[in-house]
Design a protein that fits this description.
Order of helices and strands: HHH
Number of helices: 3
Shape: elongated
Structural class: mainly alpha
Largest sheet: none
Oligomer: single chain
Strand content: under 5%
Length: 116
């Protein structure tokens, strides 16, 4: 830095019209779709396991909870994919992130209960 030169200024935040999202929103939507498809496959395999092993009360309960968790995951994923179509999508909030983690863990627990 030379003596008399003005200090460098901080870059300004880009506005919504300056944003060039490129393919990032599309890649994110595809990732949400792959994850949703994976959860759907897990649920279908759980249904298959319950049908083959015989419908016990524990199996049916785990399956019902798994179905509710899957529906919750679909709701959050659809909401997220819809928000990605905006010019400036909102950041995934803490509540949404916690809901997704809980859904994922509950699906794993239900899968363990059905197969175990």
């Amino acid at each position: 830095m030379t003596a008399g030169a003005p200090p460098p200024s901080a870059p300004s935040a880009p506005s919504a019209r300056d944003r060039d999202p490129g393919l990032q929103p599309e890649r994110t939507r595809l990732a949400w779709r792959r994850t949703t498809l994976s959860c759907t496959v897990v649920l279908v395999l759980a249904v298959r396991q319950v049908v083959r092993a015989g419908a016990t009360a524990a199996g049916l309960t785990a399956l019902a909870v798994g179905l509710l968790v899957w529906l919750g995951f679909l709701w959050v994923a659809r909401r997220r994919m819809t928000e990605l179509s905006a010019a400036r999508p909102r950041v995934l909030g803490t509540g949404g992130a916690v809901a997704l983690v809980v859904c994922t863990l509950l699906l794993a627990v239900c899968a363990a209960a059905v197969t175990g």
